[in-house]
Amino acid sequence: MSVKAKVYLVGAGPGNPLYLTRKAERCIQQADVILYDQLVHPFILQLSDPKAEWIHVGKTPYTKYIKQDRINALLVEKASQHQTVVRLKGGDPAIFGRVVEEVETLKAHGIDFEIVPGITAASAAVSQLGRGLTERNVSTNITFTTGHFKENEENDIDITTLEHNGTLAIYMGIKRLPIIMNQIKTHIQKDFPVVVIFNASRHDQFIISGTVHTIIDQLSQLPERIGPGITIVGDVARDIRSDASLPLVPNVVLLKGPRAQCLSRAYELYEEGKVAYLDYRDDEHYHRTQREKITELIHQSTIQAIEQF
Ligand code: SAH
């Protein structure tokens, strides 16, 4: 006997757990299994039922991608075994989130699905700058683009928005930024303001500000692998100050005790700009995958405090 499954393709926002929609939170709470990407904040996973299975399907530094086909197959497999499957993606699933590949697979198998939008990185980034993606008399249009192309493709990106008083938001473009900045220099004479925001909205956010001519030099002084970064080019990026105090290893508060109390305390801590996790490493009520993930996380963190309720 099988129950009719539903797959939710959910946007988890830019990382800060407070930037999760209510709908996303409800999906996560109801999930039997969650397939999540690398950029999803682990505390967001902790909102799930203790019995839910967590499966990491993202790319981690030093390892290869799980192929999209493999993720599609896993979605179908899990939907045949469970009632509620959540596919959790960073930001908004409809922006460089490959959501349509997954939707096509689900449709082909007659599996019910729903897309739940999330706050995309560009929106999170400009909110931190106190600017708009569009601004009256400053920027009247916006292009979301990416610096990441399939192997061996040396495509130019579409920068026409900059010729029309627009804003360019470049996802996944940090590595290729020198090429992109050269492209802009070659085609447009104006030295536009550029801001790169890493880890936007998260405790370890930092901002590098410059222009098309200077930004690469500034970026070259940063350590490698500092988290996801988005580049904003255009007049909305003018007069922004760099802010690059880098907390390398997160200072974490561990919460132990009754779940409801721990969750509400965690939200308070996130409001204060801290990082908190529920510590249930030794609690057998939690699914093995949840205990393993939290054990691994704690090993990678510096523990600032333990609060027991
Ligand atoms: N669907 C996601 C984007 C996925 S592509 C969204 O809507 O945001 C991954 C890229 O998004 C990263 O390489 C980076 O450019 C950007 N990104 C995601 N989260 C970010 C964050 N918190 N801060 C800065 N950039 C982020």
From TrEMBL:
<dbReference type="InterPro" id="IPR050161">
    <property type="entry name" value="Siro_Cobalamin_biosynth"/>
</dbReference>
<comment type="similarity">
    <text>Belongs to the precorrin methyltransferase family.</text>
</comment>
<keyword id="KW-0489">Methyltransferase</keyword>
<dbReference type="InterPro" id="IPR014777">
    <property type="entry name" value="4pyrrole_Mease_sub1"/>
</dbReference>
<keyword id="KW-0627">Porphyrin biosynthesis</keyword>
<dbReference type="InterPro" id="IPR014776">
    <property type="entry name" value="4pyrrole_Mease_sub2"/>
</dbReference>
<protein>
    <recommendedName>
        <fullName>uroporphyrinogen-III C-methyltransferase</fullName>
        <ecNumber>2.1.1.107</ecNumber>
    </recommendedName>
</protein>
<dbReference type="InterPro" id="IPR035996">
    <property type="entry name" value="4pyrrol_Methylase_sf"/>
</dbReference>
<dbReference type="GO" id="GO:0004851">
    <property type="term" value="F:uroporphyrin-III C-methyltransferase activity"/>
</dbReference>
<dbReference type="InterPro" id="IPR006366">
    <property type="entry name" value="CobA/CysG_C"/>
</dbReference>
<dbReference type="Pfam" id="PF00590">
    <property type="entry name" value="TP_methylase"/>
</dbReference>
<feature type="domain" description="Tetrapyrrole methylase">
    <location>
        <begin position="6"/>
        <end position="214"/>
    </location>
</feature>
<keyword id="KW-0808">Transferase</keyword>
<dbReference type="InterPro" id="IPR000878">
    <property type="entry name" value="4pyrrol_Mease"/>
</dbReference>
<dbReference type="GO" id="GO:0032259">
    <property type="term" value="P:methylation"/>
</dbReference>
<keyword id="KW-0949">S-adenosyl-L-methionine</keyword>
<dbReference type="InterPro" id="IPR003043">
    <property type="entry name" value="Uropor_MeTrfase_CS"/>
</dbReference>
